[in-house]
Write a sequence for this structure.
């Protein structure tokens, strides 16, 4: 296996009708000033060439395998080719391309697990477009865990973490309807989410003893049971168990007062009970520079925090900051992992 510095990141194209192609071109074109980590784009070279032309970019695109990506990267944007079934039109997603979109993700995992790529960075997918084609996973997070389980034979619990300079936040339940949240918030799920988060923050992010703040589910963390029972009956005992095991952990905290500046200074990561409880503060505090990173997997995966932004595709106005942050974080986590092994 080549050393980590000689391996590219595997970057998936995402939904080609969205801004993934635009921002991939941007991070490559600005590779010197932005110090973009070398990547291999897994996607349709014809769609990428068309998007570059539409945007007025003069970009050299070269098809290569993963081994050739690092040597190619300075001169041309390296692409591991796959073909979209339907013609790609910006802002007009087509479920006929679901196979190419998910195929890029599967290929990225395979290259990373076999050690030719150092980590996976995913461009955004539109979930509903894939659901229309029969995709049975809520999002990348759950799909990546399924691929990981198939490759390793291990049962995995994938954890979504939004990580930015001002906040790291983890939702315990992820892509489920709000009405299903209380039933899915079991002590076991909360415990394992906290434990995996603490382990990965220590082992992958280098935080020796992460300080964890856990949100309650209900207003005022239940107000002693008057506004809901889950905070004291379900969440608090898990926190007490983790504290007894040596984790630096507080909660359940009223969610409305745990994200202001002074509160955030008291912890490293916020464990939240549902998707929007974590993602609203994360995106409000750092939409351009936060990264969606999946913990609990046998490989590193990051992604920009935003979605496909279809209406911006092909217009030259999509910001590439979050993709750059995702590439940079994936490279750093890969380096930390290889240091841990040496
Ligand atoms: N990691 C992933 O694959 C993600 C996928 N999605 C998917 O994206 C689709 C659209 O979701 P939305 O809720 O509309 O979120 P979105 O993030 O695509 O767009 C929200 C707003 O932010 C703007 N925006 C997003 N990215 C931007 C960028 N790079 N530069 C400038 N402006 C930007 C959009 O124009 C829009 O006004 C959905 O189908 C959803 O499933 C959403 C989040 C993450
Ligand atoms: N809202 C975040 C999101 O939908 C990203 O999900 P995933 O596709 O990374 O699982």
């Amino acid at each position: 296996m080549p050393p980590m510095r000689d391996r590219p990141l595997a970057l998936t194209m995402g939904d080609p009708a969205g801004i993934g192609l635009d921002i991939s071109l941007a991070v490559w074109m600005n590779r010197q000033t932005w110090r973009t980590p070398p990547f291999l784009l897994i996607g349709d070279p014809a769609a990428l060439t068309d998007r570059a032309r539409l945007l007025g970019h003069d970009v050299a695109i070269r098809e290569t395998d993963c081994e050739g990506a690092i040597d190619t990267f300075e001169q041309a944007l390296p692409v591991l080719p796959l073909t979209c079934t339907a013609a790609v039109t910006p802002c007009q997603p087509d479920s006929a391309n679901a196979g190419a979109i998910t195929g890029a993700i599967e290929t990225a995992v395979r290259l990373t697990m076999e050690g030719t790529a150092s980590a996976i960075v995913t461009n955004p997918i539109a979930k509903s477009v894939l659901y229309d084609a029969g995709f049975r996973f809520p999002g990348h997070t759950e799909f990546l865990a399924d691929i990981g389980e198939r490759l390793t034979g291990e049962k995995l619990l994938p954890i979504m973490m939004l990580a930015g300079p001002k906040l790291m936040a983890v939702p315990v339940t992820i892509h489920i309807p709000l009405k299903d949240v209380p039933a899915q918030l079991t002590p076991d799920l909360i415990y394992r989410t906290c434990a995996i988060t603490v382990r990965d923050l220590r082992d992958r992010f280098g935080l020796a003893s992460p300080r964890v703040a856990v949100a309650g589910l209900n207003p005022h963390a239940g107000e002693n049971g008057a506004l809901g029972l889950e905070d004291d009956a379900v969440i608090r005992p898990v926190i007490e168990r983790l504290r007894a095991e040596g984790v630096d952990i507080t909660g359940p905290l009223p969610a409305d007062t745990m994200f202001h500046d002074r509160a955030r200074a008291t912890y490293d990561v916020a464990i939240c009970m549902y998707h929007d409880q974590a993602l609203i503060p994360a995106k409000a505090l750092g939409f351009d520079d936060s990264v969606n990173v999946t913990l609990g997997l046998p490989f590193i995966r990051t992604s920009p925090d935003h979605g496909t932004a279809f209406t911006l595709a092909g217009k030259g106005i999509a910001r590439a900051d979050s993709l750059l942050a995702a590439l940079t974080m994936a490279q750093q986590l890969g380096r930390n992992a290889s240091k841990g092994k040496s």
User: Anything to note?
Assistant: The first strand starts at residue 9 and ends at 12. Residues 166 and 285 are 7 Å apart (CA to CA). Residues 321-341 form the longest helix (21 residues).
